[in-house]
Structure formats: C-alpha cells, structure tokens
Design goal:
Blueprint (H helix, E strand, L loop, with lengths): L1 H15 E7 L6 E7 L3 E6 L8 E7 L8 E3 L5 E3 L7 H7 L1 E5 L7 E3 L21 H6 L2 H16 L4 E11 L1 H12 L5 E5 L6 H14 L5 H18 L2 H6 L3 H6 L5 H5 L5 E6 L11 H7 L5 E6 L22 H14 L1
Parallel strand pairs: 4-7, 4-9, 5-8, 9-10, 10-11, 11-12
Antiparallel strand pairs: 1-2, 2-3, 3-7, 5-6
Helix pairs in contact: 4-5, 6-7
Length: about 350
C-alpha cells in the first residue's frame, strides 16, 4: 500500500512538473522551460556558461506581451527585455534571469510584433493580443510563475542561495514587490518606474496635470477623469470582465501596494525619473516608511529622465538615443553588493 502511494506521488510530480534546458540560438543566453499543470514557464539566464556559482538577479518585466527575443532572419536573434542593461556588469556578480510573459513565445519574428514590439496574433491588427495572455495578465499569476522559477533555481548547483535579488520595472516593479512579500528567500528588492497606486491613479492624475498646463480645460479634465472612474466601475463588475478579458489586468494592477511596501523588512532600492508621471507618488514613500520605522531603503530620483530613463529636454522632447538604463541599473547593482 505504501509503495503504491509513493509511486502515485512520484508519477504526479513527473507528469506535472518537468523542465528542459537549451541555448537560445545565436545568443549568449540559456533557455529553460518549466512545464507545470497550469502552463509552461519559459525563462532565460543571460549566460551560456553556468559553471560558476553565483546568486540570482531576477528582473520582472513591465506590461504588455513583450517577447524576450526578436527574430530578424539571417540568424539575427536580438534580446528585448535586457537589451538596455550592461549584462557583462550584471553577470560579474549574478546570474541574470528574466521570465517570459505568459502565453507569449520566447522568440518572435519581427513581423509578428506591433510598433511597441508586443506579440500580436493578427498582423493586420496592432492590438490583437492573445486572449490567453489577457486572462493570465494579473499580479497573482506573475508571482506564482516567478516563485516556480525561483524554486527551480534554488536547487541548481550553479546558484548561490545566500543572496537572492529581485528587481522590476513599471508593472514589473509591482510584481517584484508582491513576490518579495511572498518569498522569504529574497534578500534585496529594486523598484524602477514604480507607482504604488497603480494604473487608474496615473490616468486620473494625468488629466489634472494636463489641465494645470493649460493644454485642456478643467471641464475636459472632468470628462477624462469621469471616464476613468467609469472604466474602474467596469473593472470591478464580474460580468464586464468576462466580456472584456483586458480588464483582468486593470483590476489587478490598479490596487494600492503602499502598505505591502511599507511593511517589507528587506532592504529596498527605488529609482525613478523626475519626468515620469507614473512615479510621482514615490516622493511620498518616505512618509509611510517613517510611520512604519523602515530605515533600510534608498530613494533615488533622476532629474530630467522619463519612465524608461531616457532624457527629456525643457520642451518635453525625449532623447531616445542616450538612454540611462545602464547607469541606473549599475548603481542598483553596486548598492546590492554593499548593503
């Protein structure tokens, strides 16, 4: 009886948790796939040499079905999510890891991407996102998938489990925060372009700021804000969500995460651009930290940079040729080594 029980348990594990490993063609990345009962989780390590034992640095991507690599034919496969980072610098201290978006191919031919490099199912419709992706695009799912990956990595001989650093940008910052709150093995957290209050908050503040600049009237601002409130009512209506899968994400990522952040015990590094409306409320975070006696944090505002850390001039024009992501990320890595 005991032998039969052991066999059944073993069979269950083999059936619903398997993995594979291979190199991403024409790159210096190692690709892993974890197959679970719920889905297949693809992720990469930004190295093909996994003989050196180092801690994990996990990057949580922002929103939208952005693939990890673009295929440009003629053996040109280009990384997307980590393309702005100084990978060599990161790899000196860490195994750098990023997880593919749910129901989004790891490698996508450039013809299947819209102008924002998002994966689409119909090349004639730039917003034809997969319904499976839309239904999976919520915080709890991203946290579950990331914990599956971290659980797998913890068992690898080339991983140093004395330290585990997680960072995220934009929507990914919120995921990284919730992940840190759920996983006691995470030792450091980095938040970039973070909004503690979420999407609806940003849209409402945008209407006010636009009116303050005189670009629209206050009557127009009222209309914009009321429209956002009406959208939020739809988000919290279960029937609406059934008919409009994209609302799943709006509901998940419009909730406040300030309390979760304020009660976090591990060191936190928060970086944002002064010209990023998404991150305006980061200025208020120290107030909540004081109330909760949290001292182990860094709050770094970068003047004249926008949401993705590109420079913005006095006319509001973004300089996409001189991005500062490498500078921003390298400062975070240096902090993670010292603190």
């Amino acid at each position: 009886m005991k032998l039969k029980l052991i066999f059944n348990i073993t069979f269950f594990i083999i059936s619903f948790f398997t993995f594979s490993q291979e190199s991403v063609p024409f790159t210096n990345y190692s690709r892993f796939s974890i197959k679970t009962k719920k889905d297949t989780i693809d992720f990469v390590v930004a190295d093909t040499n996994l003989n050196s034992k180092k801690p994990i640095l996990l990057f949580c991507q922002g929103s939208q079905p952005l693939p990890l690599f673009m295929d440009f034919n003629q053996n040109q496969i280009v990384p997307v999510s980590l393309s702005n980072f100084d990978i060599d610098k990161l790899n000196e201290k860490y195994h750098t890891v990023v997880i593919s978006m749910p129901h989004t191919p790891l490698i996508v031919h450039h013809s299947q991407l819209n102008e924002q490099y998002n994966y689409i199912t119909d090349t004639t419709n730039p917003y034809s996102y997969s319904v499976d992706y839309l239904l999976a695009d919520y915080s709890e799912n991203y946290v579950r998938r990331a914990n599956e990956v971290l659980h797998f990595l913890k068992k690898q001989k080339w991983v140093d489990n004395q330290k585990l650093v997680v960072m995220g940008h934009s929507q990914g910052a919120r995921i990284a925060l919730e992940l840190a709150a759920s996983n006691k093995n995470i030792t450091k957290l980095g938040l970039f372009g973070y909004n503690p209050n979420g999407r609806i908050d940003k849209s409402i503040r945008f209407a006010r700021k636009t009116a303050e600049k005189g670009l629209i009237t206050w009557h127009e601002a009222d209309s914009m804000q009321n429209a956002e409130i009406d959208l939020y009512k739809m988000v919290w209506n279960s029937d609406s969500v059934k008919n409009h899968p994209s609302l799943v994400s709006w509901k998940s990522f419009s909730k406040s995460t300030m309390s979760t952040l304020a009660h976090l015990k591990i060191p936190v590094y928060i970086a944002y651009g002064s010209d990023d409306i998404t991150s305006d409320l980061c200025d208020l975070i120290p107030i909540y930290f004081v109330e909760n006696n949290k001292l182990n944090y860094v709050l770094k505002r970068y003047p004249n940079l926008e949401h993705n850390f590109f420079p913005v001039n006095e006319k509001g024009t973004v300089d996409y040729e001189n991005g500062k992501w490498k500078e921003v990320m390298n400062s975070f890595v240096e902090w993670s080594e010292i603190n």
